[in-house]
Amino acid sequence: MKQLYLILLVILPVFPLGAQVESFHMVPDSPSVIARVSLVAAKFVVELAPADNFTFSTGLWIRPRFWSEDDSGDREFHPYPSLNPRVTFEPRYFFGLEHRMERGKRTDYYSGWYVGIPFAIEFPDLEYSMGTAMGFQCSFGRHWYWNVSTGPGISLKQSRFRMDWIVDVGFGIILN
Fold first, then answer.
1. How high is the pLDDT of residue 22?
2. Average pLDDT taken over every residue of the chain
């Protein structure tokens, strides 16, 4: 039951943002809601843009895990992976979009550099992670994109905090 409450706490604040239908952004050809499917990992991403240069990126992905930790903290290899759903939420601030537009580079679908604060919950172990990240995403062709971000962060697993390096790599299809 606690897991259900955590999921609702993460997902419910995002729904009112999707009610904005108008595209009032200065970024041309960018809708206020962008749906993406990443082919690098089985990941579905929705990016909501409530204001200029600012987006909320939420994602749901299933990642295989081949390693696990025993009670003493040692890692063990398991040849058959377990599939763990992971929910992510990341507010992003895109800087330099105006400069990219002036230079004639693409800014559609929020192509450019950003700073984000990624937060993730992984089930069924309830592993939390949060940090800061700097990244770059770009669209190419008519419906393709790629995204790379990295930065320092912390994770909480089994009542233990540890320093982690947050990395996100995406390559896939823009659905809208």
1. 43
2. 82
